[in-house]
From TrEMBL:
Residues 18-98 form the PB1 domain. InterPro entries: PAR6_homolog, PB1-like, PB1_dom, PB1_Par6. GO terms for biological process: centrosome cycle; establishment or maintenance of cell polarity; regulation of cellular localization. This is PB1 domain-containing protein. SMART domains: PB1. Keywords: Cell junction, Cell membrane, Cytoplasm, Membrane. It comes from the Eukaryota. The keyword Ion transport does not apply. It comes from Jaculus jaculus. GO terms for cellular component: anchoring junction; apical plasma membrane; cell cortex; nucleus. Its main location: other. It is found in: Cell junction; Cell membrane; Cytoplasm.
Length: 110
C-alpha cells in the first residue's frame, strides 16, 4: 500500500515549545501535543488522556518513561510538570486500568 506523506500529519512548523505525547492504553496508541512552557494541571491532562482513549468511565493510572527508561508515575501537578519538562522530544505515557492484576507498583493513587 502506497501512502503519501502530508505535512498536515506532522507539526505544521517546528516549535521547540511543543512536546509530542505518545500514549499507550492496552494495544492502542494515541498522539497529541502539549505546550512545554504551559502544560496545565494534572487533572486537565488526566481528562485529556481518558477522553483521547475513549475510556472516560474507567479509572486508570498514568505513568511515563523517563530519559533512562524508568517508569515513573504521573499523579499530581509536580510530577506531571517534571514529565513534560524532561520530555526530549517525545513524552511516552502508559495508561493502565486501576486495580488490574498487573498494575504497576508505582501506580497506587490518583
Amino acid at each position: 500500500m502506497n501512502r503519501s506523506f502530508h505535512k498536515s500529519q506532522t507539526l505544521r512548523f517546528y516549535d521547540c515549545s511543543a512536546v509530542e505525547v505518545k500514549s499507550k492504553f492496552g494495544a492502542e496508541f494515541r498522539r497529541f501535543s502539549l505546550d512545554r512552557h504551559k502544560p496545565g494541571k494534572f487533572e486537565d491532562f488526566y481528562q485529556l488522556v481518558v477522553h483521547t482513549h475513549h475510556i472516560s468511565n474507567t479509572e486508570v493510572t498514568i505513568g511515563y518513561a523517563d530519559v533512562h527508561g524508568d517508569l515513573l508515575p504521573i499523579n499530581n501537578d509536580d510530577n506531571f510538570c517534571k514529565a513534560v519538562s524532561s520530555a526530549n522530544p517525545l513524552l511516552r505515557v502508559f495508561i493502565q486500568k486501576r486495580g488490574t492484576s498487573g498494575e504497576m507498583a508505582w501506580c497506587k493513587t490518583y
